[in-house]
Every structure is written in C-alpha cells, then in structure tokens.
Amino acid sequence: MYDFDAMPTRAGSDSVKWAGLGEDVIPMWVADMDFKSPQPILDAVMERAAHPYWGYPIGLDKLTEVVIGHYERTYGAHIEPEWIVWVPSVIPGVVNALKMMGGTFMYSTPMYDHIRRLDSEANLPVIEVPLKKDENNQFSMDIEALEAAVTPQVTALILCNPHNPVGRMYTEEELLALQAFCKKHDILIVSDEIHCEIALDRKHIPYFSLNEEAKNYSVTVSSAGKICNIPGLPTGFAIIPDPKVRKKFIREQDGLQACSNALTLAAYNKAYDGSCDGWKDALRAYLSENRDIAEARFAQIPELKNPHNEGTYLLWLDCTGLGVEDAAKFFEEEAKVKVCAGVIYGDPTCVRFNYGCPRAQLVEALDRMEAAIKKLRESK
Ligand SMILES: Cc1ncc(COP(=O)(O)O)c(C=O)c1O
Fold first, then answer.
1. Which of 69, 169, 284, 360 could form a disulfide with 311 if both were Cys (CB 3.0 to 4.6 A apart)?
2. Structural domains of the chain sorted by starting position, each given as residue range(s) with its CATH number in brackets
C-alpha cells in the first residue's frame, strides 16, 4: 500500500542531503528520510498551493486542537489548549527556553550538533556530561556524573528523547531519576522530542506526561518534521503546562512568535489529525527492518560497534577499530558513502549513519562500507 522501496528522485528539491555530493556518493548523513512525505500531506499542500490568494491565514487554534487530539490518541496524554505555544521550529523553541532561564545549561553527550552550538547561539555557558556506556555499547543517563558536574549556576537541562545521535528512548525509570536530579538542583527540563514518533522499540513517554511534577517545571518541544519528513515546512510547538513557566517563555519569545504559514498549516493538520496514522505505522515497520538489517551487518564487522537503536533512524557507529584518523572521510572516500562525522556530536571516534531510506539504497551503502573495510583490513 505504501511504497517505501521506491528509489528517491530528490533532484530539484534543493536537498541539503543530496546537494554537492561527489559523483556516485550515497548520502546517509543529514537527518531527513529519502521517502516521499505521506500522501494526505502532499494533497493538502498542493490543494492550498493551487489557491491564488496568500493573505494572512488563520488556523493555529484549530491546529492546536488537532495536536491535542494526537497526544490523547497516541500517548493518552492530556493537554489543555493554552499549554501549547507555537514556535518557529524545534531549535528556536529550545533556545527560547534556555534564554528565559538565563543561567548555565547542561546536557548529555554525544549530542545532536545543533544543540552543541546553542551555547554560542543563546550566549550562555554550558556543561557537557557524557552518557554512560555499558559493555554492549548501550548508552544511559549518568546521574552520578551529572551530580558531579552540576553547579549552582545550572538552571536548565536539555533532554533529547529519543536521543540523537545514540538512538536511545529513555524508560520511565530513567526519566524519573533525571527528574529527581533536576528537582534536587532546581533545574528546568527542556525536552527535545522531535524524534518522538520514530519510536521503534517502545512507546515514547512525552516528558510533561511523566507525572504531575513533570508538568510543573518543564518545556517539551516537538514537531512533525521527522515523522512526516517535512522539515522543509518548519514549525514546532512547546508544551508548557505550568502558567508561570509559560508566561516567562512567551515573554522571552516576544516579537519572535511563530507565524502561520499557510502551507505549513495545511501539512500539519494532516500530520496530526490521524490521516497519516497508517503511513506512520508502515514507516516504523519499514524502519525497524532497515535497522535490523543494518545492525546485523555491522555485527559481522569486528572493527565496528554500535548501540542497539531504539528510536530515530540514526545509528551511532563506534569506528575505533578501523584505526583511521577520520572515519567519516574514510567512508566517503573509500566507500563513497557519506555519513556524519562523530566529532560534531562530541566523539571523534564515531560516525552517525542514517538508515531512513529505501532498502536497496541501504544495502548498497552497507555493501560498499563492508568492502572498503575489507580492503583496509587486507592492506594492514
Ligand atoms: C534532536 C533534534 N532537535 C531538533 C532538530 C531540528 O529541529 P528544527 O529543524 O525543527 O529546528 C533536529 C534535526 O535533526 C534534531 O535531531
């Protein structure tokens, strides 16, 4: 019914991921997927685009209700309309939360590279604390390390759940432990949940819905950018149940509120009104198979190690065993596969591999990486 196997034809779409690549290089890097967006979204956008009038649109109130319905249906999580504050996209929402707090902020590394640049973008000091890694390369929140690193100046902690780039989906127990740590030190949790619907192994827990206490001191930011593959139609929303926190957030945002873009409104109504639920389920099934194929292949290569990916379509690969200085450069030059260099996430020994693509593209990339590693092994 849904054709995720169709090879992409992204020429002419001004794609960051596909532009400027060397000849014959397969892009497995930037975090978007090589699948068409779901048909109900394409139809709604085309219908709106065909209309010749482009005056100021209304629609955020209606869209807010649609998002509320989605959270109720998907997570059984209740949201009051006033809790939702629209933001230009997820990162500006996170930045706004940090700015309103004004102190030092913390997060666990490796971390999504844009979040790692927020100290300079928000002009605030940051404390980076490594995640804990077990013998199976699985990452978890290191509360002891957070305790050791925290200072009285820390006012906010960014939680990335599911976590880009390590693919963790935090359990209720882990979220409760993090909540206890933040409560003890009076720290606001800013939860970036942009990947929340790419939940492959377990149900995502929206942070604000964890318990009553979570509602009191948190900002949860999300969008449909990842699940529906529409980051080119940017918007996002912050869910802020507490009126005092929300007031502060809105005051900080003054003058920079999200504007209603008519095409984005058309797309987002379809993204959240249930029209795409069948597509989303089929996508998750397809991505799970891609993930299993990639993990099985990487398990055969002794030079590579990876944590099991629970969510996101981003696989974190420890390439220490290759013994090369720059693994991303090695894969681009020797395998003609472009991945993201781990250094931007805080670990130069790793790369991030995006498996959100048709199976044939994935298998070709895996074949090429394996062949390049075999050649490297034989040359030693
Ligand atoms: C964890 C995370 N947050 C935010 C973003 C970007 O959000 P936006 O484009 O809505 O600002 C990304 C994109 O890859 C991401 O992975």
1. 169
2. 26-39+277-378 (3.90.1150.10), 50-272 (3.40.640.10)
